[in-house]
Every structure is written in structure tokens, then in C-alpha cells.
Design goal:
Elements (H helix, E strand, L loop, with lengths): L10 E5 L12 H7 L2 E5 L8 E5 L11 E7 L14 E5 L2 E6 L10 E4 L13 E4 L2 H11 L5 H17 L4 H14 L1 H17 L6 H11 L10 H15 L7
Parallel strand pairs: 1-4, 4-6
Antiparallel strand pairs: 2-3, 3-4, 5-6, 7-8
Helix pairs in contact: 2-3, 3-6, 3-7, 4-5, 6-7
Length: 250
């Protein structure tokens, strides 16, 4: 584990395909309720955004830990009838927020047995599917320009942390990026956009990216010292160059 303060979050995101098949004769919403989870509906969207939390946190307001579903946004954000397509029904009784570029997270995903983490106290295999570090970073970079300003710095900090923790896997991450680039023009264009953003945000230790990331860590309470702007710049640039997200090609 790195000697860095932990970047904590209160929500768990699950990415689902646009159309989720019913398996085992029961819808996912039914399975969640059977596990003592309750749904909290958002206001202001139709259909509403659904967030699930354990019943011990109540049925009315969001508790300290909750989960929500995301799905790739394909096509326009507005339908032909003028309604927003940012929340979609992916299965009967289940909605998900539709976000751009999320389909990347299905590429080269990794199956991981959460029972190997003793602190979780799980018995028997509990396999979860995680996004590949390369596609996770690529999706974060592509979505960054449209993110809420108050979330941008933390997104860049996540990119730095992934780069730091996966140093031994950089060659394999580069293979994932190269396979995406070679597959079709769409992915090639997306990768070029990500390259340009890295170049702008991490062009020097004094650039917006390193400064914002270092500030995020300094503001986090907990163990470990915050990384310097130079350390952030060095790690992110080396990672980007190693995996094919370095300086944009002419």
C-alpha cells in the first residue's frame, strides 16, 4: 500500500449494459430487495435515478454508503421527443444513469474475488468484475471536460493513484490501449483526445493537474504524506507514455 491518504467515496457505482437480460427468472431489482436493500428515488428526472442502500440507513434519505447503476450513453443526450436520455431503464424496475464513454469499462475487464480481502469477512468466492486500469483511466480522461468543476480535481487524483498502484502492469495496460486504437477509428479518436488532455493538464509540475492533485491529498485527513506536484507530474507522464496516452501524435 502507498503511504498516501485514502481518497474515500460514499457511493459504489455498477456499470450495466444498456439492456440487461433477466437471469434466473428474477429481475435484479428483486434480488437487491431480497438482500435488505431499499431504493431511494431522485427527484427531477423521469425516470428517476435509483440509489440502493442497506435498510439500516433508512428508506427516506441517502445514508453514508449507497450504490447506483450507470450505463453507456449511446447517441444523443436528448431523444427525438425532446426528453433527456441521461437516465434509462435497463431492465424492468431498474434505471441507470447514462454517461458517455462508459462502454470502455467493458473492455478487458478483470474478474476479482473479493473474498481474498480478509477485512471484508466474506466466506466463499465473491467474484466482482472490475474495469481494467487502462480503460478506467481512459474513460476518466474522456469524461473529464464535462464533469462538474468540483469533481474534476478528485478525478485527476484517481488517475494519479491508479497510475502509481499499477506500475508493474503498465506494459499490459499499453497492450489494451493499443488494441483499442487498432480496432476502429472511433477508439483511435478517443485515445487522441485523452492524449491531448494529458498534455494540457500535466504539461509541467506547475500545471493544473499536478497542482490540483497535490492539493486534494493535502486536504485529506488520514495517514501518509501528500505527494508533491513534481511527483504527481512524473508518475502521470511516465504512465501515459508507457501505455500510449503520452504526447498526442501529429
Amino acid at each position: 500500500p502507498p503511504s498516501l491518504p485514502g481518497l474515500m467515496t460514499s457511493d459504489i457505482d455498477w456499470t450495466l449494459p444498456v439492456h440487461l437480460e433477466v437471469q434466473g427468472g428474477r429481475r435484479l431489482a428483486e434480488r437487491l430487495v431480497e438482500q435488505d436493500l431499499v431504493v431511494i428515488h431522485s427527484r427531477g428526472t423521469e425516470p428517476p435515478v435509483q440509489r440502493y442502500q442497506h435498510i439500516r440507513f433508512g428508506r427516506d434519505d441517502l445514508g453514508p454508503i449507497y450504490g447506483e447503476f450507470l450505463t453507456p450513453l449511446m447517441g444523443s443526450e436528448v431523444g427525438r421527443d425532446g426528453t433527456a436520455r441521461t437516465v434509462q431503464t435497463v431492465q424492468e424496475g431498474l434505471t441507470a444513469q447514462a454517461l458517455r464513454y462508459l462502454d470502455l469499462l467493458f473492455e478487458s475487464s478483470i474478474d476479482f474475488d473479493a473474498a481474498t480481502i480478509p477485512e471484508l469477512g466474506l466466506t466463499g468466492p465473491h467474484v466482482v468484475r472490475l474495469p481494467h486500469p487502462a480503460t478506467y483511466v481512459l474513460q476518466k480522461l474522456l469524461a473529464w471536460p464535462a464533469r462538474d468543476p468540483d469533481k474534476r480535481a478528485k478525478d485527476l487524483a484517481y488517475i494519479f493513484e491508479v497510475a502509481l498502484l499499477t506500475r508493474d502492469q503498465w506494459p499490459k495496460a499499453g497492450e489494451v490501449i493499443e488494441n483499442l486504437r487498432a480496432r476502429d477509428r472511433k477508439h483511435s479518436v478517443w485515445i487522441r483526445r485523452a492524449q491531448q488532455l494529458v498534455e494540457r493538464q500535466f504539461q509541467s509540475p506547475a500545471a493544473e493537474g499536478p497542482v490540483a492533485v497535490a492539493r486534494i491529498y493535502r486536504d485529506v485527513e488520514g495517514r501518509g504524506a501528500a505527494p508533491s506536484e513534481n511527483a504527481v507530474y512524473t508518475i502521470v507522464r511516465r504512465f501515459a507514455e508507457a501505455v500510449g496516452l503520452g504526447t498526442a501524435r501529429p
